[in-house]
Design brief:
The protein is mainly alpha-helical. The chain contains 12 helices and 4 strands; from the N terminus they run ββααααααααββαααα.
Length: 329
């Protein structure tokens, strides 16, 4: 993953213009989690360099004013969660303050006119209640509450988000999360793809919410979603986590990162459950990827069951998430 890092821009795979910026937020989050779990600070200079450069106002969305405030709420959410991990790693409140700033920015786009609430995704057009923006906001607000003593604001926001999400219909009758809601007055589940990361970030949010409240029923809900995901023949094939898109080419520029995000959050849930029901699945996937999806230079392809295909930042950060989940829990 670090072989794709560009010190000049602070981005990973900067020539991949379709997804480099948001995936660099994911890569930074992954990198910080690696350093937290391994105890190594070897890549801290790169992490700090990324923040220094990329917190500037975005060329395509100067209206955000910088500090990762983007033209979509989900892109902001990835970077905000990376800031919470960087704060945990360094203890520097500058990064916590950026995360708080990003949360306030995201909450500005809580819809008060349609769908009874929820974050919208596309800020310029004020459209689309999607799952991932709301899941990221759930995890971010619960995480902020857990990091900040005597907080009440973020606790209120995370409970507000979960109450809305749970009633929205995005969790379907199979306990899988579809991509979002229809853009009409009905505001019902749009039946779109059940991407792995939509089954994952919700798990991390519910674990943080359980920690915030002491209510283990949130873990029960997370387990229902996780069980549905790992039982899905679309998302797990012959024991290997996969994606509804079938190839690296079909899944680019975004989807190659998704199952790494899923497995990271699945491991977070697994650690919170006494019987660790997903540990074997995670380990088996790591072993399969190491054996079948890795080339001679230790790059990983998209298909963890193999064969190796192409190198992108999405495939590399997904592999790092998988290996952290399997061996650094």
């Amino acid at each position: 993953m670090m072989a794709l890092y560009d010190n000049t821009t602070g981005l990973w795979d900067p020539n991949n213009t379709g997804s480099s910026w948001w995936q660099s937020g994911v890569a930074l989050w992954t990198l910080c989690e690696y350093m937290i779990k391994s105890g190594s600070h070897d890549y801290l200079p790169q992490a700090l360099n990324t923040v220094k450069i990329q917190r500037a106002p975005l060329s395509w969305w100067p209206e955000g004013g910088g500090d990762f405030r983007a033209d979509s709420t989900d892109d902001t959410g990835w970077w905000a969660l990376a800031m919470t991990s960087l704060y945990e790693l360094t203890g520097d409140e500058e990064y916590l303050n950026i995360a708080k700033e990003d949360e306030a920015y995201m909450f500005k786009y809580w819809n008060t006119t349609t769908c009874d609430g929820g974050l919208i995704w596309n800020i310029p057009s004020r459209t689309y209640h999607n799952a991932i923006s709301n899941e990221l906001y759930l995890e971010l607000t619960a995480k902020l509450h857990n990091l900040i003593p005597d907080d009440t604001v973020y606790l209120y926001h995370t409970l507000l988000e979960w109450e809305w999400f749970n009633k929205s219909g995005m969790i379907n009758s199979q306990n899988l999360v579809n991509d979002g809601l229809t853009d009409d007055a009905a505001c019902v589940n749009n039946g779109m793809t059940t991407w792995t990361y939509n089954q994952g970030v919700i798990l991390g949010g519910l674990v943080e919410l359980s920690n915030a409240t002491g209510d283990t029923s949130f873990l029960d809900e997370a387990r229902r979603i996780a069980d549905a995901a790992v039982s899905s023949t679309i998302l797990v094939e012959n024991g290997t986590i996969t994606e509804p898109c079938n190839s690296e080419e079909e899944c680019e520029p975004n989807g190659t990162a998704f199952k790494g995000i899923f497995v990271r959050e699945l491991a977070k849930l697994d650690a919170a459950l006494d019987d660790h029901p997903y540990q074997e699945l995670i380990l088996n996937n790591a072993e399969a990827a190491y054996a079948n999806a890795r080339n001679g230079s230790d790059f990983y392809g998209f298909l963890w069951q193999g064969p190796f295909d192409e190198v992108t930042i999405g495939t590399q950060e997904a592999a790092v998430d998988l290996l952290i989940a399997a061996f650094l829990h």
